[in-house]
């Protein structure tokens, strides 16, 4: 049962063949992360095509970049690339699109938000002050302002002998899964949301329609669909003297 929950079709609507193609051959959802680079190359065909609107003051790097008709790149945005920006997607002022980013139709990368090796499914949004690294946002996912999808563990220093970092391992229902990834941010299923200043630690998988409340730091692993993840605080209100 656990293995089934970790399959792409358990987190995302894959009825659209173009979306399903991004997960071809993936038995677990995190296997799609190292494939993003290949899919960017496929979608851009290694070239450059600007059919959308790039406003004065935006900057496009020299790598392969496709911006489809109806997409908008606002002043002050910087697209390094390679990147694919789908129809109706918006890259807002001050956004930073690094290497291997796919923004599908109607998605948003907003002000002071950064994406790297990331996949935004249709309607996904990181509108304000977000970091989305080595991560996947499902359909209509919304990240509250200041959400960070951390992709590198604090104890992941490179081995002195091999020069390699340890891979991220998840324990789900008592079963350990070695993802084989040294960088793994978060994967949020369709219609999941985070509140402001939430932090999803490396290796978080959030089920569809689940809500992560503001200021919550979420541990790695699988968090089931249709849930609420929240931080409980003790707040005292005292009279001023």
TrEMBL record:
Where are the coiled-coil regions? none
Query: What are the protein's UniProt keywords?
Result: Acyltransferase, Transferase
User: Annotated Gene Ontology MF terms?
Assistant: acyltransferase activity; nucleotidyltransferase activity
User: What InterPro entries does the record tag this protein with?
Assistant: GlmU-like (IPR050065), Trimer_LpxA-like_sf (IPR011004)
**What is the recorded name of this protein?**
Glucose-1-phosphate thymidylyltransferase
């Amino acid at each position: 049962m656990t293995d089934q929950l970790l399959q792409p079709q358990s987190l995302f609507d894959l009825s659209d063949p173009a979306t399903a193609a991004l997960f071809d051959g993936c038995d677990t959802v995190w296997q799609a992360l190292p494939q993003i680079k290949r899919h960017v190359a496929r979608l851009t065909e290694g070239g450059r095509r600007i059919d959308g609107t790039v406003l004065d003051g935006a900057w496009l790097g020299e790598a392969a970049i496709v911006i489809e008709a109806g997409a908008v790149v606002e002043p002050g945005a910087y697209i390094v690339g390679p990147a694919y920006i789908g129809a109706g997607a918006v890259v807002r002022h001050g956004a930073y699109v690094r290497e291997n980013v796919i923004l599908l139709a109607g998605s948003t990368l907003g002000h002071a938000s950064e994406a790297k090796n990331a996949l935004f499914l249709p309607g996904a949004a990181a509108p304000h002050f977000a970091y989305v690294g080595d991560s996947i946002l499902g359909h209509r996912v919304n990240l509250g302002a200041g959400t960070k999808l951390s992709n590198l563990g604090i104890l992941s220093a490179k081995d002195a002998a091999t020069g390699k970092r340890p891979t991220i391992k998840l324990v789900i229902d008592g079963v350990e899964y070695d993802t084989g990834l040294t960088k793994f941010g978060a994967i949020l299923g369709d219609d999941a949301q985070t509140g402001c200043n939430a932090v999803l630690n490396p290796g978080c998988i959030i089920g569809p329609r689940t809500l992560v409340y503001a200021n919550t730091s979420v541990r790695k692993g699988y968090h089931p669909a249709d849930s609420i993840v929240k931080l409980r605080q003790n707040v005292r209100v005292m009279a001023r003297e």
